[in-house]
Each structure stands twice: as C-alpha cells, then as structure tokens.
Write a structure and sequence with these properties.
single chain, globular, 6 helices, mainly alpha
C-alpha cells in the first residue's frame, strides 16, 4: 500500500512543480511560497478536522513535536529555495535536481536512522546522482 501512496505523492509533486512554474511568473518567489503555504495549511487542517483527528493533538509528545517543528522549518526552507530555483531555471532541469533530495534522504536514513543498505538502494542512488550531475553540467 505504501507504494501506491508514494506514487500518488510523486504524481502530485510533479503536478505541483508544473503548476508552480506557471503560477510564479511575475510573482516574487517568497510571496508565491507564502500563498502556497496558506493553501497547504488550510487543506491539511481541513483534513484533520474532517477525519476527526484534531482531538489527538494533545497526544503528541514533546520529542515528536520538536522534530515536526524542525521538519516544518526544513520544509519551508526547501520550498523557498525550490521556488527561487524554479523562477530562475527551467522546470525540466530544476525539478530533477531538486529531487536529488532522494539521494540525500537515503544517505541520512542509513546514517541517522540506521536503515539497512542494499545493493538496489546503492545502485538507485548512484543512478540518481549521475542524472543530477548530467543536468547540472
């Protein structure tokens, strides 16, 4: 089931990038991120309330809250840099280079989370890295 959600995430991430590239024309990239963030905020809280999960907010531990806040800061910085790059470059180049985050995430998962390294993940990471280098240079 995780693969279906991951593929849907990839589909909507691709759509997000193309829609953002069209929408960012003649708009400051930081302002564009702020508008997008409001939409995401409203949508996420809407889903939380519609599914009745808002009562669970008091169950979030301090550790989880800290890491969710840190993740939020990382997301914000990621979006700010991505939108600036998207404003300055072609989506067909910016988006794949941005997705180099996949390789960085893999390395961090191995080093920080202690996830198992396999030959498939190493080969996949190397192929993504090679593609990123080709696009940059």
């Amino acid at each position: 089931m995780w693969a279906i959600y991951a593929l849907l995430g990839a589909l909507f991430a691709a759509l997000t990038s193309i829609l953002a590239k069209i929408g960012i024309e003649n708009v400051n990239s930081n302002l564009a991120v702020a508008v997008r963030t409001i939409v995401v905020l409203l949508m996420a809280w809407g889903i939380v309330f519609v599914t009745g999960r808002h009562n669970e907010i008091t169950n979030i531990s301090q550790k989880s809250l800290l890491f969710l806040v840190l993740s939020g800061f990382a997301t914000g910085l990621s979006w700010l840099f991505f939108f600036k790059a998207l404003q300055l470059g072609d989506a067909s180049k910016v988006v794949p280079v941005d997705k180099f985050s996949v390789v960085i995430s893999m390395v961090m998962a191995f080093l920080i989370l202690g996830e198992a390294v396999s030959i498939k993940t190493i080969i996949g990471g190397l192929l993504i890295t090679a593609g990123t280098i080709v696009l940059i240079f």
